[in-house]
Input
Amino acid sequence: MAEGNRPVRTRRYEIQVEGYLELGMAEQALRTLARLGQEASLGPHALYLQGEALRTLERYDEALAPLGQAAALSPKSVHLWLAIGWCRKRTGQIDLAIEALERAVQIGPDDALNHYNLACYLSLNGQKERALAHLAQALKIDPSYRHLVDDEPDFDPLRSDPDFRALTSIIV
Output
């Protein structure tokens, strides 16, 4: 057995899949994962990789199954909740996307990315006060996120709001 009590063969396939995903070869990643067997036998990392490959291919509905299984096996994994939120948003399930990002924030409260993404989803859902609070927290943790706000369409519902303009016009 190798790291995380996974067989060496499984870890080798996961490394190959990670490489394929880095190269943008999601179809090849899925073919490689298929060699590991059925979803029911995959561990949380392989399930995450499967979800990521499907997400890369914009097959968001399909990605939710392996990502959800991975989150059930590894519920304190921030990257899983971010990926689930990403897919939920893109399948029109904004309330569930918010729930996923709230989990990510609970697990990683000092990660600006978690707060920033939650702010985006809250903005889309018309929850101005909460969106501004999480955006402010993201900017406090990492002021460089300020440079992303202008090009972020998720904040379009708040652009003309004076509180949003005040928050985002602060010079960092």
